[in-house]
Amino acid sequence: MPSSELDPPRVAYLVYRVERRLRTRIDEVVRLHGVTTTEYVTLSVLRRRDGMSVAQLARWAFVTPQAMNVLIAGLEERKLVRRRPDPQHGRVRKTSVTRKGIQVLDRCDRSLDKIENDMLGQLPSDNIDLLRDMLATCAHSLEATRPRSL
Fold first, then answer.
1. Interval 44-98: pLDDT, tens
2. Domains of the chain
3. DSSP secondary structure string, 89-122?
4. In sequence order, which residues have a C-beta less than 8 Å from that of residue 57 and are 6 or more positions away?
5. Which pairs from 35-41 meet CB under 8 Å and 24+ separation?
6. pLDDT tens column, 9-39
């Protein structure tokens, strides 16, 4: 039976719409602070999980390890991150955010606060925590399952 205009939109479609609009807004504001969205995400992850490898960061940012290596090299050149050898693994280098990187992150975060307020402003405050938990659960579920053949 074909869907009609009276059927509610698919959750996946609504998440896609939010993601596209949110990504556009984030791209615009972080660019004003001299970073790309992927660089911002990488710096944010490192602030929360100091010492990650390029391969780990690539998984978090949904890019290839090769692309992440280039991105980290650029951040390192701009002194936003530093890398140090991992004492347990000779070839692995752990990455950390520098003081300058934290300053850039703080400026980006203030700009993103405005975007989040615009997006969430019409929701009751107790629903925001619920939404955060539900989105985290959805992300975890997708990460934990493999796509099935159509």
1. 999 999 999 999 999 888 899 999 999 999 999 999 999 998 888 778 899 999 9
2. 11-111 (1.10.10.10)
3. EEEEEEEEE-HHHHHHHHHHHHHHHHHHHHHHTT
4. 42, 45, 46, 68, 72, 95
5. 35/80, 35/104, 35/108, 38/63, 38/71, 39/71, 39/74, 39/75, 39/80, 40/105, 40/108
6. 999 999 999 999 999 999 999 999 999 999 9
